[in-house]
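pasting for ref
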Amino acid sequence: QSGKPVMFGVLTTDSVDQAIERAGTKAGNKGFSAALNAVEMVSLIREMQNGPAS
């Protein structure tokens, strides 16, 4: 095991229009949300290893 968090985000869509909508319009940007979750996981793992930041 690598000891590194891995995020796997897949957009399941039925059409190009639906994919475009999920990539940053009314439904929000799902890729951006996945990236934020990855950063949060790295921060959480570091905090668990080192204790809370002061």
